[in-house]
Amino acid sequence: MTLIDIALIAGAYLLGSLSAAIILCRLLGLPDPRTQGSGNPGATNVLRFGGKKLAALTLIGDMVKGLIPVLVARTVTADPVVLAAVAMAAFLGHLYPVFFGFKGGKGVATAVGVLFGLSWPVALAAILTWVAMAALFRISSLSALTASVLAPAYMFGLDGRTPFIAMTTAMSLLLLWRHRANIQRLLAGEEKRIGKK
Known about the structure:
The protein is an all-alpha fold. It has one domain. The protein contains 10 helices and no strands. It has helices spanning 3-16, 20-27, 43-50, 52-76, 80-95, 108-118, 120-137, 140-158, 162-178, 180-188.
């Protein structure tokens, strides 16, 4: 791995560490999303107290910070190992942001962003899974969990590159871990539905 590769990975982590939810809420004079609702600095929680427009901006911001590092890396290298490492670094930056005390979000939107950078058919399949589950059950966490569980299978079937499959599997396991409280609430029938304050 070259110095350029290492710089790409480090840059991906730093960009991933920029929390769209926290930054946007600060700019608009709103409370830190980590102190509101579910305490998660993500689009679903922002929707509960900040409205649809702010939630949409949060979603886009978190996706873009996952997408850009991978696209930049693609202009430098075609090595799937490096691209997978860059993608994982951006994702980990969102989960454990250096700029916000290593207390970040659950990573769903950023995961979608990095998947788009690696293989857009896989990202599209994951999004369609989320949309279908959300339409059926109106529960964001259930939709995200289903999409994350299926993402490695999508990567295996639609792309097939081993480093990408390994990275997607690791990312999916981290998503499950970050949603462990949601899983407990789902099992107890207590998880909030989309749009419910």
